[in-house]
Specification:
The complex is a heterodimer of chains A (624) and B (123).
Chain A (H helix, E strand, L loop, with lengths): L1 H28 L7 H26 L6 H6 L6 H6 L5 H22 L5 H24 L24 H30 L4 H32 L10 H26 L3 H23 L13 H25 L12 H33 L7 H21 L13 H21 L5 H23 L5 H23 L1 E8 L3 E4 L2 E12 L3 E12 L4 E5 L2 E5 L4 E5 L1 E4 L3 E9 L5 E10 L1 H25 L1
Antiparallel strand pairs in A: 1-10, 2-3, 3-4, 4-5, 4-6, 6-7, 8-9, 9-10
Helix pairs in contact in A: 1-2, 1-6, 2-5, 5-6, 5-7, 6-7, 7-8, 7-9, 7-10, 8-9, 8-17, 9-10, 9-12, 10-11, 12-13, 13-15, 14-15, 15-16, 16-17
Chain B lengths: L1 H18 L7 H6 L17 H15 L4 H12 L14 H27 L2
Classes of the chains: A alpha+beta (624), B mainly alpha (123).
Chain lengths: 624, 123
Amino acid sequence: MLSNIGNFLLFLNVFLSFLVIFYSFQNLKTSQNKIFKNIYQINLFQCTSILICFLTLISAFLTSDFSLLSVYQNSHSLKPTFYKISGTWGNHEGSLLLWVIILTIFSFLFLILNKKHPKNYRLYTLIIQNFLILGFLFFILFNSNPFSIITPVPNEGLGLNPILQDPALAIHPPLLYIGFVGSSIYFSSAIASMITNYSDKMFATSIKSWVLVSWAFQTLGILVGSIWAYYELGWGGFWFWDPVENASLLPWFAMTALFHSLLVLEKRNALYFWVIILCLLTFILSVTGTFLVRSGILNSVHTFANDPSRGIYILIFLSMMIIGSIYFLFTKYKPNNYRINSNSKETFVLINNWFMMFYLITVLLGTLYPIFTDVISKNKISVGPPFYNTVIIPIVVIFLFLMAIGPQTKWIKNKFENIKELLVITAGAVLINFTIIFFFKSYSFISNLIIISSIFLIISSLFDFFKKEKINLARIISHLSFGFLILFIGLNHNFSVEKDFNLKLGETKQMENYEFFLQDLELNQHKNFKAVVGKLKVSNLLTNERRILKPEIRIYDNPQTLTYETSIQTNFFRDYYLTMSNIDRSDYYNIKFQKKPLMIWIWISAFMISIGGFLSTFRNAKYN
Amino acid sequence: MKFKFAFLIFFILFNFNSSISKEIINELEIHKNLRCLVCQGQSISDSNSDFALTLKSVVKDLIDEGKTEDEIYSFLSDKYGDWILYKPKFNLENFTLWVFPYIVLIIGGFIIIFLIKKRSKNV
């Protein structure tokens, strides 16, 4: 029943997309400068029907309708209601439906919110966006249909992977997809802009809000994902340079480069084709990321669901997008005349883009390289955190300095009047760095540089905040928070304490100034799992601080899995992070304890970066 | 001004020498650089599989024998293949991986210089 409704609505959406494309072409032929009313209506109808389609799927998950294959594979009748709902987009098929929803809603919003831009430009954007929608709808219908039925109807579902049953992971995909899929709208409008020759600064204003809002959501999505990885995966880190994490980072770099370049296009009417390339690149990278993740071509912690046939479909779709983009770029490219002075804000924006491209290519190369070596020489290699840290971190130092100076420069022609001030700030940053070393402990050369450069960025951003009469608050917040983010990551990295040892019930162990006592083990029965809960007393002998941490070993029934739940004690200065795992054929438990200083500030800084993005969106929407 | 600047540089260099901590072999850091071959995308530091436990004790033995970090990595990659190392070796096969990012960086720099030279003349 639900399957029929769902399939009907999917087909209806295919029909509506064709209808939008048809009427748009009709409208293009007319000379009147207005968009047909029925295009608005069909578009609204599209949004409604795809939303109802999604609600149908949610209700199938809620009522545990196991006649649907996707419900059978990803749900279970005993699962808590919240995770039944989040299970809807926690799998491949459901998440694709979420893609189509975002594609459709963004296309509708773009249509109604950009009324002052020319008709043809808006119509072509709509047409290309609907081709993208069709591409994904066909993918859903012919390869990954969440409404496929299974006979005979099973009595019980297979259940959702327990590590996905988590509040952070429930909101992580929607946030990330708004970023990923939101970038489709400026992919479409970039092509529309080339077709209709709508290439001046008005084009920049028409997409600016969209770039900013998708960037802000992408940032939030990445943040929530790494918070999840921090407490769920149990290794105490928050970024592993895992292929799937990289896939979310690649479009982020392109977007960051894009909205900086957009400033140049908006203010100086220059760099038009570079902006176009970045618009196209962002969405292409989003789809590439999806391809890498869903095809299962890469080995990753995140490979929950993959299947080669999906990969082939996405690959064809991706190639068509790339070929189309390149075709339009070559046929529409024309050199234009503009001036850039070596010492101007324009140059600094170019420098920002230069670094972003470096990060992007490093991460892309690192992610794909194992595939190359595997194909070429059958030699499997791993590219992990040490590679990225070695290649990227030294460059970040220079980047942070330039990031501090760039915003202070003027458009067209700049003069450095504040060299003295920069020297004072450098000296201040160096002094703070040595103060930290003096009171705590010394760290490596590169850590010194990272901490000095991030403090430099922080101080200069603060100066900007208090000095200028007319400030761009959004920019300052994002730059300042980025400085803090790098500073806290640097300090956290250098001042973390890590202990790894075995304990049995009732035993006490002392390591340096920490004492650990395994007080108690409890067996708890929950709705869909049982848990062994350890009660561990951690005492810091220096500060006389005592804390009880309760790590768990969980045994889930459906599917049968063992997971280790971290116990984390957070305050503003540090996190205590503890995991416990059983050792086979022994009554000892392996304990991993970490003290992670300033952990919460890393999350707060990253959150503030995205707040800067949202503020900037509002500001931009207000003025345009 | 020049004097102050020179003093600043001297001050920085002087302090760096005393502030940089010496690199000591850190067993836990080595664990983080080794892939747990039987797990999904985990290092042996994060895993409690039998494989990870065995490998941890192998690493401990090698450190006790007085092997350096690099010697430990090459010993393990001879035995298990390069797949085990999270930091790919710098060799002919991985040359592109290690060098290409910097080539991009250099070329990018030249493009910007070239662009600005051209654009600042052309009125």
